[in-house]
C-alpha cells in the first residue's frame, strides 16, 4: 500500500469517551456509542472540539481495548460509563486515508511498516494481552450524515512516537 505519512506535533486534547473490549474487527457496538457521545455533549451544552475518533489502548491477537471519543473544550461531567480523558501531546506519525474504512487495517499496517523503516520508536509496550499504546488513533474526519458514500470518507491514522 502506497502511503504519504508525515510527522507532526500535537497538543494534549481532552475528550469524552467510552471504553469497549472489541473482538476482531467487530466494531458495531462501539460504532453505536458514537452518537451517544454527541448527544451527551449536547445535553451538557458543550460543542465537540473536533471529529470523533477511536483510541486503541490495547491491540491483541484476538481482542482489543478501544475508546470511542469526541474532543471537548468545555468542562463537562462524565456520567454512567462515559469518562473524560486526555490524548497526550507529542510527536505523531500520521497518514490520511481516503476511502472505505475497511482498508484501515491495511493503512495501519503500512504506517507501522513505514515507521519501522524510518527507525521511529513508537509509544507502545508489549504485554501478555497485546500491545499497549500510548496513543494510537483513527480520527473520522468525514461525517457520514453529510457524505454517505464510504468510498469518499477521510480517516486519519495517528500513532504517538516514543520520544513524544
TrEMBL record:
SUPFAM superfamilies: Probable bacterial effector-binding domain. Coiled coil: none annotated. Transmembrane segments: none annotated. Residues 3-162 form the AraC effector-binding domain. It holds the Pfam family GyrI-like. InterPro entries: AraC_E-bd (IPR010499), GyrI-like (IPR029442), Reg_factor_effector_dom_sf (IPR011256). Gene3D superfamilies: Regulatory factor, effector binding domain. This is Effector-binding domain-containing protein.
Amino acid at each position: 500500500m502506497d502511503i504519504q505519512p508525515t510527522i507532526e506535533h500535537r497538543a494534549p486534547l481532552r475528550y469524552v469517551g467510552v471504553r469497549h473490549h472489541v473482538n476482531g474487527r467487530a466494531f458495531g457496538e462501539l460504532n453505536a456509542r458514537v452518537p451517544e457521545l454527541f448527544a451527551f455533549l449536547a445535553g451538557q451544552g458543550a460543542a465537540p472540539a473536533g471529529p470523533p475518533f477511536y483510541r486503541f489502548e490495547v491491540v491483541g491477537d484476538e481482542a482489543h481495548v478501544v475508546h470511542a471519543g469526541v474532543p471537548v473544550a468545555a468542562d463537562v461531567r462524565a456520567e454512567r460509563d462515559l469518562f473524560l480523558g486526555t490524548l497526550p501531546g507529542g510527536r505523531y506519525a500520521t497518514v490520511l486515508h481516503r476511502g472505505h474504512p475497511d482498508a484501515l487495517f491495511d493503512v495501519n499496517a503500512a504506517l507501522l511498516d513505514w515507521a519501522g523503516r524510518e527507525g521511529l520508536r513508537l509509544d507502545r509496550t508489549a504485554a501478555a494481552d497485546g500491545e499497549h499504546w500510548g496513543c494510537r488513533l483513527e480520527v473520522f474526519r468525514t461525517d457520514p450524515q453529510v457524505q454517505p458514500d464510504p468510498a469518499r470518507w477521510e480517516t486519519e491514522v495517528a500513532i504517538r512516537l516514543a520520544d513524544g
